[in-house]
Amino acid sequence: MNTSFYNKLSFAILIAGSLFLTSCGSSSGGGEEDVFEFKSSDLTNKYWYSSTFIDDSYSKNDIVLVYKFNGGGDLYKQEFSGRRDVKVGSWSLGDDNTLIIDDETIINSQEWKIDKSSTRDHIFLKSTIGNRDFYTQINELNDVTADASIVKEVYLKNDDFVSGYRYDFEVKGDNIKSAVAKISSNESFTLIKSQNSNDETVWRINEVDANKYLENFPGEKLVKFVLTMNSGEEYKLEEKIYNMDIAALNYQSVKSEHNTGTGPLALSVEWKAIADPNVYYYVQILNSEKDENNPLFTSNWQPASTDDLQLLTVQEDIAGDFGLALGEQFYVKLVAFLFEEGINPFQGDIQDFNIQARSQFIRSGGEW
């Protein structure tokens, strides 16, 4: 027997096997536990989305989570109302690929093991209470915003003007098939598809539900939106209405004037300011049906000045910009509003979905 030949053959097989194991261990999805390492830099400077949708009930804690792990160990959660980041705690990554998430909005700190199948775009987390997947994006949610607010409205009741509270919702997203807002296990609002003054598709409260007024301020409320997408996928989003009330507008002080004729329309609205320096204002033009879900025009917002009386003037660039024909009836809607807590409207990209509370009054604008 040629023992030299077999010794050389065994040595060659050993080297080949060693190379095979080394190759497997260095791949992104395989390898032994002791060669896998997920670095902190693989987590930071990106958003991580996780959806664990179970059903459309209010009580289930199956909302979409969006975390951002900052390099300094700060943990941020993104709100879908304004797609803004709110600091909610801290995080750390241990040498044994243990990810500790200390989210102050959740009672207990969470300890997760990052599975070796994870990549830079997908982390698979394991714990004693279950598993969770996080992805760097969920394409259907890229353009989604979901906002809830309280409206204090002056309206006509039994021939007298009174003020009452109601809820308002606005959901945006190109891939949404249906949207429902839930404020408790027993109360929900099926939203309707409409257009805003920028020709964007929005999901809003319907006319019947918009007339359900509350006498007293409802206070802080946790709202959950259930979205069904065109793909059939379902997601649950969470939004908080803060305990921030707003005064009623002085409806008797609201006046409007407009020019008539065939040229461009100019509309001036005057009103008495609410005694709060944090209140801002805008004006909408509504059609003859007083349709709030499809306004003809929405002005830019303006802060209150030191003057007791406020004035806002809007003008068409060309006749017909506001969608009004000669002789047509229209309405003027004045809105006072408060931004959500922590918002500085003079810094950053602030949109209309960062509003916490509104106060409004609608009056006839007359005949154009």
Description:
The chain has 368 residues and is mainly β. It folds into 3 domains: 40-137, Lipocalin, CATH 2.40.128; 141-147 and 166-241, Sandwich (Immunoglobulin-like); 251-367, Immunoglobulin-like (Sandwich), CATH 2.60.40.2060. 7% of the residues lie in helices and 44% in strands. It contains 2 helices and 24 strands. It has helices spanning 3-25, 207-210, and strands at residues 47-50, 65-69, 74-79, 84-93, 98-103, 110-114, 122-127, 130-135, 145-157, 160-172, 176-182, 188-190, 192-195, 201-204, 221-229, 234-241, 255-258, 266-272, 280-286, 297-298, 302-303, 309-315, 329-339, 355-367. Strands 9, 10, 13, 14, 19, 20, 21, 23 and 24 form a 9-stranded mixed sheet that branches. An 8-stranded antiparallel sheet has the order 1-2-3-4-5-6-7-8, with no helix packed on it. The chain has a 4-stranded antiparallel sheet with strand order 12-11-15-16, with no helix packed on it. Mean pLDDT is 86; it is low at 1-33. It comes from Labilibaculum manganireducens. This is Lipocalin-like domain-containing protein. Keywords: Signal. Residues 1-29 form the signal peptide.
